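Morning, I've got a small favour to ask if you have a moment. Here's the protein in full, and shout if anything looks odd to you:
***
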Amino acid sequence: MISPARFLFNGGQTPSIWNQKMLNDSHISVIKYFENSHDVFP
């Protein structure tokens, strides 16, 4: 699954409760992090 990095840093306009749920979910993990989305989506 590809997800915006704002979930990783609890930032943006997404509710903090949702971000914390994603960050603390044991079924979700970061396999690879790309700082620049153009590296994945040219």
Observations:
- Residues 3 and 13 are 15 Å apart (CA to CA).
